[in-house]
Amino acid sequence: MFLLIPQNYGRDLSDTAVVTTGGEEWLRQRSVLYRPLAGVPALAPGESTVTIGTEGFNEWRTLPATGAVSINGADCWRLYGADFKQKAAGMGNGSAPLSGPGPNYLILFGVPGTAISLNLAP
Questions:
Q1: Distance from CA of residue 14 to its chain's centroid?
Q2: CA-based diameter of the chain, in Å?
Q3: Partners of residue 57 on adjacent β-strands
Q4: Nearest-angstrom CA–CA distance, 31 and 16
Q5: How far apart are CA 63 and CA 105, in angstroms?
Q6: In Å, how far are 18, 30, 34, 40, 48 from 22, measured between CA atoms?
Q7: Helix/strand number for the chain, H first, E second
Q8: With 90 as the cut, is the pLDDT of residue 31 above it?
Q9: Distance (Å, rounded) from C-alpha 19 to C-alpha 99?
Q10: What's the CA gap between 60 and 68, in Å, rounded?
Q11: pLDDT per residue over 64-105, tens digit each?
Q12: Neighbours of 31 (CB within 10 A)
């Protein structure tokens, strides 16, 4: 990276790199990873378990436009609408209704190896 900014000496510059994670190309800028939305797995109806991987990355899931989701075992979780405006959030266990014209997105936080139980009801 080459940049000349008078009086600033190029402060706070960072390179963006393409990294392969799980067979997908993600973008890394400093300590932030950006994942393609198309690669976020859809949560199947009924009960399922999501495990936080050894890397400690937060786990994302795509949810349908309607229904409800219950979360058990997460350190923290957040639910976003299709416009990525936060609809609900919680620490530990919780549940939230799903609504909206498009899909919803759930992010789960936990330490590596944490098994989080999810129940998606139509």
A1: 23
A2: 58
A3: none
A4: 10
A5: 6
A6: 13, 20, 13, 11, 20
A7: 0, 11
A8: no
A9: 34
A10: 16
A11: 999 999 999 999 999 999 999 999 999 999 999 999 899 999
A12: 6
**CA 80, CA 96: separation in Å to the nearest integer?**
11
Instruction: For residues 112 and 107, give the distance between their C-alpha atoms in angstroms, rounded to a whole number.
Output: 15
Residue whose pair of structure tokens reads 């495990």 in the numeric block: 51
Q: What is the mean pLDDT of the chain?
A: 91
Helix (H) or strand (E) holding 94: strand 94-98
Residue 38 in tokens: 């198309």
Lowest pLDDT segment from 14-18, 58-62, 66-70, 91-95: 14-18
Tokens in use for 46?
A: 């009924």
Show the domains of the chain with their CATH numbers.
1-38 (no CATH), 40-121 (2.60.120.380)
pTM (two decimals): 0.85
Quickly tell me which residue has 């199947």 as its tokens. Answer: 44
- Note whether 71 and 90 are within 8 A (CB): yes
